UniProtKB/TrEMBL annotation:
Name of this protein: histidine kinase
GO CC aspect terms: plasma membrane
Pfam families (alphabetical): HATPase_c, HisKA
Lineage: Bacteria, Bacillati, Bacillota, Clostridia, Eubacteriales
Segments passing through the bilayer: 9-33, 157-180
Matching SMART domains: HATPase_c (SM00387), HisKA (SM00388)
PROSITE patterns the UniProt entry points to: HIS_KIN
Subcellular location: Cell membrane
Main location: membrane
GO molecular function: ATP binding; phosphorelay sensor kinase activity
Species, as recorded: Congzhengia minquanensis
Residue span, Histidine kinase domain: 241-445
Amino acid sequence: MNKTIFKILILFIASAVVISLILLSINFLAFAITASDTSNLNQKSPVTVLGEVAKHLNKTDSGFAFGEEYSLSENLWVILIDEAGNVIWQEHKPADIPEHYTINDVASMTKWFLNDYPVYVRTLDDGLLVLGYPKNTVGKYQMEYSMEWFSSLPTRLIAVLLFNAVLATVLALCFGLILYRRLKELVTGIRTLKQEEPTNLKEKGIFKELAKSVNETSVTIGRKNALLKQQDDARANWIAGISHDVRTPLSIIMGYSEELSGSLKDENKQKKAEIIMSQSLKIKTLVEDLNLISSLEYDMQPAKKKQIKICSLLREAVSEILNEAMDEKVNIELDLTFEKAAVVGDERLLKRAVFNLIHNAVCHNKSPCTIQIIQKKEESMCVISIRDNGAGVDPKVLEQIGTIPKSAHGLGLPMAYKIVQVHGGVFNAYNDGGFCVEMKLPLAQ
């Protein structure tokens, strides 16, 4: 299970349980507070009204009466019953309320109703005070509990809370699993999208819009990739065609120039023939680089792998550089400390990388210039260091060292970087009193 989705699921379940317990506690409290709402009938509870009536009821020579400062609400009525069961005083008494009561009538009304009127009672020294509310305004239900019920109430409350917590956890888990499946589909879709592969998520549920966006993005990426592939194929075909068209006339030019340079007796003409030969070689190298960079740009693996002696490869690359017309003030120093070093790879590609780096150091630095080539072993890696004491390289070039330039100029450094990469190596380039390149290649077992 994906850790991120698992964390979301756990957080979802924990939140649901906590919210359920909080709501349950609030509901218990609210029910306890609002269990009796008879105070809303007259803005006062029956007990309060009875207390006010008893307080303001005065006994006079002619009977009973309220004080001048108090009056009973119009929708309420009250009577006073003496010990004989007779009504000796009343206020707002309905016509269907009797004037005399037996002990059974009194017992009944104290719990329930009097002629369907909800009533409440209070004893006074002069008799029983009965307060009545309008019909159909109050419901009364008798509920009785043993003392054992009250003593075990805390335990049962805890049991109810635990039951609700378990129920909330189960329900949250059920909904969470549904959420997990949808999230897992989205995560899988996004990962597939990251790899630029076709994605087709189900567009339903709470993540409908998000799934739709992922699907639309997948379609857009597919279209762009198809267009890019078409453009890349066209470019590769163009490079291959140009290379083929250039090789034939170039071979003829190189053959004739070589023949002329060996047969001409005029020193000036012989020198011109050699220049033609030299420039033709540069054109040939450029064409080869274009073909090579076209394949390396897509991280194509070396085609002809074999075990290569690094020291021999370095010596051959230096010999080719020295055989070219090179400024006499440019000095190349070789320091090969691990003669047995061998790597597995494409000899042509690795030699091209080394040749390009040395050739760049020769061509882009003013003489006098010293180029140091150091080869050594570090654990299971063969390290090749090429450094010069020239002007260095523009930092912007180093920042984009892995990007193939759009022009033929500046191919050498990115090409070497790509070649080392496809051989599973590490390529570091930096300025330090000149330009320095360090290549690390895995040693052959």
